[in-house]
Amino acid sequence: TKNAFETGLDELRTLRDEVRLKLHLAKRDVKDQWDTTFEPRLEKLERDARSASDNTMDAIRDALADAPAR
Known about the structure:
Elements: H1 4-66
């Protein structure tokens, strides 16, 4: 029969394995969330920022072109 020490070690190993599995599943969940939610939002933000920057530069050029010469 197992003594209390061996039983305790078995319980610790079981807990360790359960934690490893939960961490593995959590990593997959986080990656899925990143791929489906966060990364697309960041890509859209980058596109929007570039578009805004291009529009701003166009507006500045137009304003300078329309400005009276000194």
